[in-house]
Specification:
By secondary structure, the protein is an alpha/beta fold. The chain has one domain: Carbamate kinase. It contains 9 helices and 9 strands. A 7-stranded mixed sheet has the order 5-4-1-6-8-9-7, with helices on both faces. Strands 2-3 form a two-stranded antiparallel ribbon. A hairpin with a 2-residue loop joins strand 2 and strand 3. The radius of gyration is 16 Å and the shape is globular. The site of uridine 5'-triphosphate has 23 residues, from helix 1, helix 3, helix 4 and helix 6.
Length: 226
Amino acid sequence: MRIAISLGGSMVNKEEGTDWNYIEKIKEIIEKTDDEFGIVVGGGYTARKYAKEAREKGANEFEADESAIAATHENAEAVIKGFKGLAYSKEPKDFKDAREAIKKSRVIVMGGTIPGITTDTDATLLAECIGAKRLINISNVDGIYDKNPREFKDAKKYDEMTHEQLVELAAESDKRMAGTNFVFDILASKLSARSNIEVHFVSGKNLFDVEKAIKGEKHGGTVVKD
Ligand code: UTP
């Protein structure tokens, strides 16, 4: 079975640098399976730093995104290195590359692609491209809530929800101010809906849940399916 993973940059790239220990833990989970994995790594701390520095030098938003994408490539390279031979040694730079790479290796790892999108969208596009029917979103958010859990103490986590509900929540947050971004953006939500890709949201800090989501077992996060 093919599985896509959106590995949040903040899980592997922190202000202190690359979290090699975390990468090793993800490697150990994947090693226990015999599935095929298309992994997209986010930008984390470095992406925010690069984008900020670019803007300070007068870069426009397209250029700031290009700088942030460079950070996602650095993180993808780090994951490939930390996986010590488990993943294809060359990072695919686009989806066409990825489609070829997955034929050669059971695990492929890439970063961002074009300005204007996020690695969640890249991971969903990768899922479509390689025919993965399950996508696991590993981030510092442990599921989808009916309202922002940081703002509202009575926010409730969904165990399960439909694609339609996910698109609705993502669209709502799209209208809000910058900086209050929802866990999965609207484009990624719509793409997963059109291809009926099951999306699992789990906290990256909870490796038991990460493992369960990868194995297709019940976990403490949120599952989106029709
Ligand atoms: P991320 O997807 O990592 O966003 O892309 P994020 O919300 O910061 O996620 P974490 O914190 O890593 O988990 C980082 C930035 O890289 C650019 C965008 O500027 C995005 O905000 N990017 C990423 C692109 O422009 N295109 C891509 O394909 C991917």
